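User: I'm putting together notes for a lab meeting next week and I want to include a structural view of one of the chains we've been expressing. I don't have a solved structure, so I'd like a prediction I can at least talk through. The sequence is below, exactly as it appears in our construct file.
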Amino acid sequence: MSQYRIRSTGEVKTQGQIRNIHKNVSLPKVWGANVHESLGIDPVTPTAQPEPSGDYKVVVRNGVEQDANGNWVWAWTENDMFQEYTDEDNNVVTVQDQIDAKVAADNAALASTERATRDELLKATDHYGLSDVTMTEAMTAYRQALRDVLQQAGFPQTITWPTKPE
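Assistant: Thanks for the context. Below is the predicted structure for the 166-residue chain, given as structure tokens.
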């Protein structure tokens, strides 16, 4: 969606919003420099969102700014992900409390994903456990190692997946 900066006010509007402002003006489908000049607008060029400089930082759009070439581009600002606040029960929730909660939630989500991966690997070898198939010791050990993945030190961030026997 094209955006434009209105020179007189500094407001940023979409092409549709600009058309609404100028309802009684016939405008071409494609806008060039002559349309920009007559409407007193400058095109705003999207720029890539930069990466946050560290953990628990977020980068958000913050209006527009001129680049070194004088073009109007998206502006970005970096903020802390968490701010200390007081909840509805009048308890102070610290930044560290919020970080701890996020880490716990992220770990729970990752553990769930890794358990699903483990379950799929077990499921792929279930047929070796049928009554008419003799499971090799190597396959039995592999399946037990898959079950033991949850007890590995560092789970769910660090997992040493067992190698499936041939």
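A couple of points you could mention at the meeting. The chain has a mean pLDDT of 95. The longest helix spans residues 95-123.

User: Perfect, that's what I needed.
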